[in-house]
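FAQ: What does a multi-protein file look like?

Like this. Sequence, then C-alpha cells, then the next protein.
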Amino acid sequence: MMSQKAKTPNILLILSFIFSYFALCNCECKFAVTNETTKIRGMFVFGSSLVDNGNNNFLEKCKAKANYLPYGVDYVKGPTGRFTNGKNVIDLLGDHLKLPTIPTFKDPTTKGNMILHGVSFASGGSGILDETGAVSGEVMSMNEQIRNLENVTVPELEKQLGCNSKEALGNYLFVVGTGGNDFSLNYFLNFPHNNATLTAFISKLITGLSQQFQRLYDLGARKFVVMSVYPNGCSPMVLARVPIPMRTGCFEPVNVPLHLYNTILRNFLDELMQKMPGSKFVYVNVYKIIRDVILTPSQYGFDNTKNPCCEVTTIEEGGNETLCKNGGHSCSNRAKFVWFDGLHPTEAVNIVLANKAFASDLDCEVHPTNIKKLMEE
C-alpha cells in the first residue's frame, strides 16, 4: 500500500498543472507595443497568390513561385515570393495599420516573438477546395493553412502572450483572399466536363468557406476582412486565349460566374455575422474596384489595362501567359500598368485596393464598413 508521503507529490503536481492552466486563461495578454490608436495587434493572412508573400518559396515541389526577377523589382528586398513588382495588398494594409512586415509561416525563422504581429499562411495556387491546387504542385490549401494556424502558430502565440487564444485572437485582423483559383484552376479548367452546375459549384465553395470561418471563429477570431475574387476575365492571361476580334474588353463568359460568386459571398458574410455573435466582417469588392480602374484608367493614373508589364511565356512558346519569365524584362513605366504579369496586378493597383479597403465610404466597395472603422471597434 502506498504511503501518504508518496501520494503527496502527485497531488501537488496535479494542483500545479491546474493553477498553471487557469493562470494562462485569466492573465492579461502581453501584446507587443503597437500604435495606440488601433486595437489591431496584427494580421493573420489566408488565401492564394494575391496575398502570398513568400510561403511557396519553401515548398520544394510547388510550381507557383515568384522568387526571381522581375518579381520584386521595386520591392526593398527584391524577389521574395510576392507575385508583383513591389508590395502586395497585405503589405500595404500593414502600412495603414502601422504593422511590421507579416512573416510567412513556412519560413523557418517565423517563431518566437516573430509571430506577435501575425503570420501569413497564404499559398499561391491554392483554393478553398483541397483539390484546387493540384495543378500547381505542392501548395497549401485553405484547410491546411488553418490547420497550420491551429496546430503550430496558436500554441506558440499562447506561449508568447501568456494567455489563451480565445482572448488573444480577437485583437487580430484575419484577412482572407481566396476563391479565384477554385474557378481558374478547377471549375474552368474542367469545363465543360464538370459534374456540377455553376450554382452547385458555388454552393460547394460557400459551404467550404463556412466551415473554415467557423474553425477560425472557434479559435477566437472575431474581425475578418474578406476579399472578393478578381475580374479574371479582364486579365492578360484570359484575353490571350480569346480570338483577337473579341479582345475589345473583358471576357464576360469568365467574369459572369465570378460576379455571381461574389454576390453570393457578400450575402453569405452578412448571414454569417448573425450566426457568429461578436464577429465583424468587411467585404472588399476587389472585383468592382479593378473593373472601375479598367473602365476609367486615366482617373486612377493608368494607361495600359490589357498587357502584362513583364515578359511572360506565351501560349505559342508552350507557356500559359501567366507568370513572368525568370530573368525576363519588365516595362519601365510600371505605375501605369494594371497587370504586372498575366494574372496579378502591379503595386500601383495594390495601392488603390488597399486604400479603398482601408478608408472607402462606398458600400459598393467595402461592406458594411471599411477596415479603418473596423479597427476602431
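And here is the next protein:
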Amino acid sequence: MAFISKDFRSPGEAWVKTDEGWERLKVLECGGKRKRHNSEGSSYQMLASDSQDEEEEGAIMPPHYHITIRCTREIAGFNGLSEAVKRLDFRRSVRDRKRFHYICAFLLLVSNKGIASLPGSAQRQLLQMVEEVASHVNDSQQHPNVLRGLALKLEQIVNQENQKCWGKPLGSTYLWKEHMATIKRIQRVASQIEIREPDPKAKPKLHELPEECVREIILCIADHRDLESAAKAWDTMAKLVSEQRIWRELTRFHFNQRQIHTILDLDKFKQMGEIKDWKQIYHQLRRTYGVNDDYQFAEVLALCRSCCCLFWPSDGHPCIVDQSPDYKQRLEEAGGQLALAQPVPPAQFLKYFSL
C-alpha cells in the first residue's frame, strides 16, 4: 500500500520574527512568552498582550519535545538538536537550580563531541546557553568551577579549529566571528569572577555551628571528591569526614546490598573482622561497579513511553493518555506499565541526535 504524505499544497510552517531572529511558531509555543518584532518599527511586543495574559497563560504549553525513537517505512523522522534545546527551554532552565547541573553536563558532553560539527543554529544556541551559565554564576556566586571548566573547553575547541584549513576554522566566517565574540565574553566573565563574602553580620557562621549540624550537612554530600575537598578546608570538617558513618552512608547511597555483600565477601575484607574501613569499601565498589552520576542531578529529563515525548517532570507535558480516554482505558487494562516515564540522562539525550 502506497504511503500518502502531507498535501504538497499545505501552507507550511508559521514563522515569527523574535529578538533572536526568525523562529517557527510551534517552537515558541513551549516555555512561556517570547518577544517578537513589531511590524511597524524596531520595538518589541510580547506574544501575549497585557489584556490577554490570563487567556494566554492557559494556552501556553509546558516545555516538551516529541522525538522519533525508530524510523520505519511509514514514519521517517529527524530529531533536531537546536529545536529540541529551544522546545525544552534549556536556556532559561540554566537559572533553575534543579536543572543547572543537568544543563552543564549536557554542554560538556556536546563540547567533547565537537561543537564545530553541529549546524550553525545549534552552535549559536549552545554558546548562548554557556553565556547564560556565565551570567548566572556571576549573579548567584555559585559553581564558578563549572564555568571555568566550560570556558577551558571552549578555548580548546577554538585552538583545535584554528589548526584546521590553513589556520582558519571551517564554516561561515561571519558565524565564527560571532562565536569568537561570545567566547571572549564568556572567558572574560570566568576570569573576572570573584566569590564575595556574604554579609559579615550574618549569624551564625559555618564554623560556629555545633558538630552535629556540620555532620548533617556532610551527610548530604553525594560525591566523594567533595568530601575530600571539604576535609582540606577546616580541621573540624576533616575530623568529621574521617568518621566511618560518613563513608558508610555514602556507600549505601550509591550501591545496593548485593553489591556491598559481594565486596565484603572478599578475603581482604574478611580479614578486617568487625572493623570495616568503609572508605576503602566505597572506593573498591566504585572501581568495580562505577558510580551512578545521575544522582548529582536534582531533576532529569524524562521520556514518556506513551507518546515518545521528552519533558521536565516538574512541568509535565500534553500526553495522549490525557487526551484520549479510549487509549487511557486500554492502557489501564494492560497494567499501565507503558505510561511510566523513563529518566533520560545527558548522555542518553545526545543519542537521540546524529552527532
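Q: Is there any per-entry metadata?
A: Some entries carry free-text notes. For the entry above: Confidence is low (pLDDT under 50) at residues 33-58.
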